Amino acid sequence: MKKNILLLIAFIIISLLGKSQDTIIKVDGNKIPAKVIEIELNSIKYKKLDNIDGPNYNILKTEVWMVKYQNGKSDIFYKKDELITRENGRNYYKGSRISNDSVAKILKVKASNEISQNFNIGFKCKIAGTGLMIVGGFGIISGISLISLSSHDIGLVILLTGAGVAVVGIPLIAFGKSFMKLNIAKYNNYLATAYVPTLNMGFTQNGVGFTLKF
Fold first, then answer.
1. How far apart are CA 171 and CA 158, in angstroms?
2. Would you write out the chain's pLDDT as a tens digit for each of its 214 residues?
3. C-alpha dihedral (84, 85, 86, 87), degrees to nearest 10
């Protein structure tokens, strides 16, 4: 009898603990049992449920799809299918591969013209760097060929020129790729903050006014 009562008490305690937790659901579907401390501009501060007296942790909103609170309410931080990802130089949106031009249009319509323009700057730098690499590579091959044909001086000049052009192209490509990724990340972060409801209070001629923004 006592054993059954203890089991019942243990079951009730476990059930209550389970209901008292918040759940952070990430974009990839993984769930983090947690106690949410604060929703910040770009991140969510929380404590791990298995170490509630431990340190605070932060997770970027761009990594989080939804937070379910212990009271049954939830916050959706952005529409999951509107995330843009870039892998191996390819862009993906809503499960499909899209062109860089399409990315720029989405950034302009759903985020801002500035983010779209910066993405295009990165793309143009990448193209320019690739072009310099091709021209430089052609110059290196031509220079080696001329040297092998006894045109040593001319071949050496062309070889060194080609190498210099190619070297200039390398950082341009690296900058272009990173700048494209940066502005896609800015778009994803914009989505993370755009869908969080905010309550604003102000004074009007009729008294105090409240505005709920979605």
1. 21
2. 555 555 555 555 554 444 468 999 886 668 899 999 998 877 899 999 888 888 999 998 877 878 989 888 888 776 666 788 888 888 888 778 999 999 999 998 888 899 999 999 999 999 999 999 999 999 999 999 988 887 888 989 999 999 999 999 999 999 999 999 999 988 887 776 655 444 444 444 555 444 444 4
3. -160
- Note if the pTM is more than 0.85: no
Fold of 2-77: SH3 type barrels. (2.30.30)
Find all residues with CB under 8 Å of 82, minimum gap 6, and list them: 93, 94, 110, 191
Instruction: Identify any residues that bridge with 66 across adjacent strands, giving them in sequence order.
Output: 25, 76
183 with 115: CB under 8 angstroms? yes
Helix 113-148 vs helix 152-194: angle between axes, to the nearest 10 degrees?
160
SS3 content of the chain, % helix, strand, coil (to 5): 55, 25, 20
The Cβ-side half-sphere exposure at 31, using a 13 Å CA radius, reads 8
Domains in the chain: boundaries = 2-77, 82-193
Tokens of 77: 């931080």
